[in-house]
User: What shape does this take?
Amino acid sequence: MDKQSEHCKEVYAYFGLTIYSAQFLEQAMIHLIVFLDYFPKAVPNFSTSDKWEEDFDKFFDGENQRTMGQLLGRLQKLGIPCEELKEKLKVALKKRNWLAHTYFYERAKDFMSEDGRNKMISELERSAEYFKSIDEEVSSIFYKIAETYGLTDDVFKKIMDEMLVESKSDL
Assistant: This one.
């Protein structure tokens, strides 16, 4: 494959990583909603593990159907812990929508040259880092809340280890 084709593939790879990072942030937002909305209502009414699992899956699946904008709206209603995070999530939403809907259209001219593709790669790297940094902020909040329900780092590690074994992961 020629150098230009490889460079184009690199742009697509960075785009994929950036969208992946945005989706990871969306999942962190869902997890925060779980601990701000589902747990406070469900824990006092716990009856059986089977019922918990069924209700949890239904709640989680419902949140997973929402757009990032809808998730942000839910978090605003539930009370995002700080104004600064709320503003960062608004920027992340705008950035995510831009990437998903118009990024390549707006960058078509840049994509035609090596310099333009290099600018795109840098831009995508910065965007991925932005999503990751916000994901870390959101995750740190839901992990703190999770601890109040007995879900410690050790419990999460055990769950992750079980999932890796179950998936026959080669990571």
Observations:
- Helices lie at 3-42, 49-64, 68-78, 83-101, 103-106, 108-111, 114-148, 153-166.
- The chain has a mean pLDDT of 93.
